[in-house]
Amino acid sequence: MRNPRRDPKHILAHHYPDLGQFEELYKDIHQHPELGRKEGRTALLIKEHFERLDLDVKTNIGGHGVIGILKNGAGPTVLIRGELDALPIREQTGLPYASKAYQRDSRGIETPVMHACGHDMHIACLLAVVTLLKSARAEWDGTLICLFQPDEETGAGAQAMVDDGLYTKIPIPDVILFQHVDHQKTGTLSICSGPTQAAADSFDVKIFGRGGHAAQPESCIDPIVIASCIVVRLQSIVSREVAPSDTAVITCGSIHAGESANTIPDHADLKLNIRTFDVAVRNKVISAVKRVISSECRASGVEKEPEITTSSSFPLTDNNSEVVSRVKAAWACTFGDKVHFQDRKASSEDLPNLATSHNIPYAVWFFGGTDAATWDDAMGRGAPELIPRNHSAFFAPAIQPTLRTGIDAMTLAVLSLMV
Questions:
Q1: What is the Cα–Cα distance from 349 to 414, expressed in whole angstroms?
Q2: Which of the following is catalytic: 152, 296, 318, 408?
Q3: What string of DSSP letters covers 335-401?
Q4: Which residues in the chain show pLDDT less than 50?
Q5: pLDDT for residue 4
Q6: Which of 34, 39, 85, 91 is catalytic?
Q7: Please, which residues bridge with residue 368 across strands?
Q8: Would you call 227 exposed, middle or buried from its count of C-beta atoms within 10 A (0-12, 13-18, 19+)?
Q9: Which residues contact 211 (CB under 8 A, 6 or more apart)?
Q10: How far is CA 258 from the centre of its chain?
């Protein structure tokens, strides 16, 4: 029979931290966002919190990556993960704690910065979870690793930590858990087994033509015409080379060539993004994209092969079914019918790079940040598109009950593996 003191509801009831400090921490981090690879202030705040809890602290892993380890006897090792970085977006929420920050990006350009993806909420939730579990350490067994990675938005941060010897510096976890705030209604959770978020591959493409005067096109090779043909032809990969039962998205997010109306430029630049939910489909689509680009160039008489460079790559997020089942069972007593099935999202996440090197099972889920009144109004009007979503300049999770939901969901998930 389970010791009643080890019941998760008992632990939540008797060890819950004062949320005021975490609400203020959230506002502070929201007001002072930092771009990837520049997250020094945020990492320092987390380090100082870990030190106050007397955790084993590791810093500067893969950049500004910071980790707190809470060893609590024999038992499973569970890693919970958050992210440090923000986005180059000018905030338009109008909140009293809205970001007015600017930073120089990787190109040296001064840009506005905003926590438009909820990483600030993730930080506040996880630090509260660690604080709660430190208080309740007599009621669970194992090792808790709280990891905050840098540079998630480019898809590089998790792998940078692994490449920097992450698993020589911390115990190899038995399970990895991660939660992401999104635009769904506050107080709700969504999760599924198997493919959860898409793999995403981005490419910079340079097409070489032959420039000249617009009055003499016969002496030129127009890279804009070639680029236009490529953009249109790429969509036939999805419609004619990918099975209807599979999913793929190919997007040309940028096309740039020339500066003058009466000049045919000598090159054109494209930025492409590919999203898939299956490894075989991913490989097939990437190969087809490269084939189409090269073939269109050859068909136009281009003398120099196009340059195709990978600019970022996110792996497929594929939830472990056993971990998902345990997490959902742990939520039942607290969240009941507020736990929903999560449809696959075409958004992407680099967390799997923390897991693949040691085949560590993991689960990723989502929790709502849109206040109930805003949600109900939008749904009542049949206009869900009016709700600001992640990466919007208007995205701002309601602090409560979002923070409490995230704390409860992650605490219960950890305890499902440790009690």
A1: 21
A2: 152
A3: HGGGEEE---BS----THHHHGGGT--EEEEEEEEE-HHHHHHHHHTT-GGGS--TT-TT----HHH
A4: 1
A5: 62
A6: 85
A7: 182
A8: buried
A9: 220, 263, 264, 265, 266
A10: 34
Query: Closest Cα to residue 363, out of 179, 119, 159?
Result: 179
Cβ atoms 24, 127 nearer than 8 A: no
Contact 316, 274 (CB under 8 A): no
Residues in contact with 245: Cβ distance below 8 Å, sequence separation at least 6, in sequence order = none
Angle between helices 321-335 and 399-418 (to 10 degrees): 120
| pLDDT score at 3 | 63
Asked if 350 is an active-site residue, the reply is no
Backbone angles phi, psi at 302, to 5 degrees: -65, 135
Q: At what angle do helices 19-31 and 399-418 cross, to 10 degrees?
A: 110
75 neighbors 141 (Cβ within 8 angstroms): yes
pLDDT at site 267 = 98
Hey, which residues does 110 pair with through a beta bridge? 104
User: Is residue 152 flagged as an active site residue?
Assistant: yes
Neighbours of 357 (CB within 10 A): 13
**345: which 2 tokens?**
């999202």
State the pLDDT at residue 1. Answer: 43
pLDDT in tens, 348-402: 999 999 999 999 999 999 999 999 999 999 999 999 999 999 999 999 999 999 9
Q: For residue range 19-75, list pLDDT tens digits in order.
A: 999 999 999 999 999 999 999 999 999 999 999 999 999 999 999 999 999 999 999
| pLDDT for position 275 | 98
Per-residue model confidence (pLDDT) at position 419: 82
8 A C-beta contact, residue 81 and residue 122: no
Rounded CA-CA distance 172/79 in Å is 9
CB-based contacts of 118, cutoff 8 Å, min separation 6: 180, 181, 182, 369, 390, 395, 397
Say how far apart CA 41 and CA 48 lie, in whole Å.
11
Residue 280: the pLDDT is: 97
